[in-house]
Amino acid sequence: MNSVTKNVPMTYSYFEGTLVANGFIDILDFSASKALKSINSSCFDLHKGKTWSNVAISFTTGIKAVCFPGK
Length: 71
What we know:
Elements: E1 10-15, E2 18-26, H1 33-42, E3 54-62
Antiparallel strand pairs: 1-2, 2-3
């Protein structure tokens, strides 16, 4: 994100061909302080002036096993 690459620790689960991964990032690690300031400004009343830079991230994907007999 924003030309920044980071390894993000994630927990995961797998069940019946579906992988779900969850983790957290700090958007300040990705040069996004300007975006956070904008969110703080837009949501000031709703968040009572407090908006944190930690963001939950997740993804879900299907995994299909393919067997190649004899290889």
